[in-house]
Structure formats: structure tokens, C-alpha cells
Design brief:
Layout: E1 12-16, H1 21-36, E2 41-48, H2 59-72, E3 77-81, H3 82-86, H4 90-95, H5 103-122, E4 126-128, H6 133-146, H7 149-155, E5 164-166, H8 174-183, H9 200-214, H10 218-234, E6 239-241, E7 248-250, H11 257-268
Parallel strand pairs: 1-2, 1-4, 2-3, 4-5
Antiparallel strand pairs: 6-7
Helix pairs in contact: 1-2, 1-8, 6-7, 6-9, 6-10
The protein binds iron/sulfur cluster.
Iron/sulfur cluster binds next to helix 5.
Length: 276
């Protein structure tokens, strides 16, 4: 963290605390650090997507783990829902087949926006995410496979974001994070998101696992590649502002993806889209 200047004196860091093992470990590590760095302020946000697993909400179990680790380190925890922020649950967006996007595509852009909004409301100047090396390498490869350079730069840490993202676990493998969680005695979420099966990420995960077995260091190489591209992004010129909400979007768009989803959701629900 020190080498990459992730934290500075006086920072208020919003932890994206889903309650999964990565974000629990992240909260543990930052919580321990905050005990030593007295001028480091931590707050946490859990995003409730509105995903039903039949009997209950998918987020319910994880929220228990989130509350536990937040209480252990005296980190105030706030819960934000897609329903409150975007007018509908993820289930309702998927039911209406908004833009025919996969659940994860919709969920990903909403979560990103929800955390930006949470940071604004809570006065945080940085957002800490628990993405590990495996997650990050998968994301880089998925963006390469889609040929989506803009998305790759958008998801890279610390590029054009209104609130800077930091990813302290980015160079730790999923296995290392799981071992840490186990050794510290944290529980693991047993409920799986019903939308997580047979996704592109699933396939990419398998490919990378196989590749790493043959070419050691593949995941690190992908992250190095992303880091170099990030430097290009910092030179600017790739982003514009959404005409509706003012958040950054790619230079070829008038509206950001979140506003596009909300506009279509309103149309499909029989509500008037907001004028642009
Ligand atoms: Fe959202 Fe997809 Fe993750 Fe489920 S698996 S929480 S839909 S991003």
C-alpha cells in the first residue's frame, strides 16, 4: 500500500464491504492499519442488489459477515440498495430484460455507481475494493476478449474516477486471501448468486487457471499490462461527461451506461424517460 501511495494522512476511505471473503479481509487489514494510523478514517458500504434466492435475499447472509467485521473494527456500515438508487431491484431489471444485458453487466455498472454515490454521501475521498489478483486478471482478459479498451481503462485503479479507487489486495491471489480469512477465523458465504453460473467470467476463470499452470506469472503479466495502459489513460482524452448525470463515460457516448439502463427500465415500466 505504501509503495503505491494508496493511502495518505487524513484520508476518509469507503470500504466496499459486500461481506464476501475478499472484502472481509480488506476490512480486517484496513481496520488494523487504522488502529496505527490515527488520522485514517474508515467507513463501509454494502450494496444490496435486490437478488432473490427463492427463500431470502442473496445479500442477507453476507450482510451478517459484513456487520461482524465492521463492528470488530468500529467501522460504520451503511447499506444502499439498487431499488433506492436506481428505481428497481436487479431482479426487476433482469425480468424486463433491460437492454438484454446479462445480469452481471447491469449489476457491475450499478455497483460502481452505488459506491460512488455512497462515497459522496459519506464524504469519502477514496474507495477501497477487495478485488484480488485472480479477479483482476480475469477482468483484464475479459476486456481484451471484448476488445473493450475503454472499459479496461475505466475499471483500472485510479484513472479518471471521480472518487479514486484503491485495491490493496490486487496482487494477492484468491488462495492467499482465503488462507488469511481462514487463519483469522472469518466465515465464508455459502449462498451463491443465482446469476453467477455459466457466465463469461466463469469460462475466463477456467482458462486462466489452466494457463497459470503452464505459464507461471500469467496473472501478474496481465496486471502489469493494465498498469501500463493506465498511464496512457492518465494522459486523458478518452472520456466525456454523461449528459444526464455528469458522471464520466466514454467519449463516444452521450449517456453513461447507468443512465441508459435507467432510461430503458423506465420506458419498459411505462414511466416517462427523463429528458436529456
Ligand atoms: Fe451481481 Fe453477477 Fe455478482 Fe451476481 S454474480 S452479484 S449478478 S455481478
Amino acid at each position: 500500500m505504501k509503495n503505491e501511495n494508496m493511502l495518505s494522512s487524513g484520508d476518509t476511505v469507503l470500504i466496499g464491504l459486500s461481506g464476501g471473503k475478499d472484502s472481509v479481509v480488506l476490512t480486517d487489514i484496513l481496520g488494523r492499519l487504522a488502529r496505527k494510523m490515527r488520522d485514517l478514517n474508515l467507513v463501509a458500504a454494502t450494496v444490496d442488489e435486490g437478488i432473490s434466492t427463492g427463500e431470502s435475499s442473496y445479500r442477507e447472509e453476507a450482510l451478517g459477515y459484513a456487520r461482524e467485521v465492521a463492528a470488530k473494527f468500529n467501522v460504520p456500515l451503511h447499506v444502499y440498495s439498487y431499488r433506492e438508487l436506481f428505481g428497481g431491484t436487479l431482479d426487476s431489471y433482469v425480468r424486463l430484460r433491460v437492454q438484454n444485458g446479462s445480469a452481471c453487466s447491469v449489476c457491475g455498472v450499478f455497483r460502481r455507481r452505488a459506491l460512488n454515490e455512497a462515497a459522496r454521501r459519506l464524504g469519502a475521498n477514496k474507495i477501497a475494493l477487495g478485488h484480488n489478483k485472480d479477479d483482476e486478471a480475469q477482468t483484464v482478459l475479459m476486456n481484451v476478449l471484448r476488445g473493450d479498451l475503454e472499459r479496461m481503462l475505466r475499471t483500472a485503479e485510479g484513472t479518471h474516477e471521480l472518487v479514486r479507487r484503491i485495491k490493496p489486495l490486487r496482487r494477492l491471489s484468491e488462495r492467499e486471501v482465503a488462507i488469511y480469512a481462514y487463519l483469522r477465523g472469518y466465515g465464508f458465504q455459502s449462498v451463491e448468486c443465482p446469476y453467477s453460473r455459466d457466465t463469461v467470467r466463469d469460462k475466463v476463470r477456467e482458462v486462466l487457471f489452466e494457463l497459470e499452470g503452464h505459464v507461471s506469472g500469467s496473472r501478474d503479466a496481465l496486471l502489469n499490462f493494465e498498469d501500463k495502459l493506465r498511464d496512457v489513460a492518465r494522459a486523458g482524452g478518452l472520456y466525456a461527461k454523461c449528459e444526464l448525470c455528469g458522471e464520466p463515460t466514454s467519449s463516444s457516448r452521450k449517456l453513461c451506461k447507468v443512465c441508459e439502463y435507467i432510461q430503458e427500465f423506465r420506458r419498459l415500466s411505462g414511466l416517462n424517460p427523463e429528458p436529456v
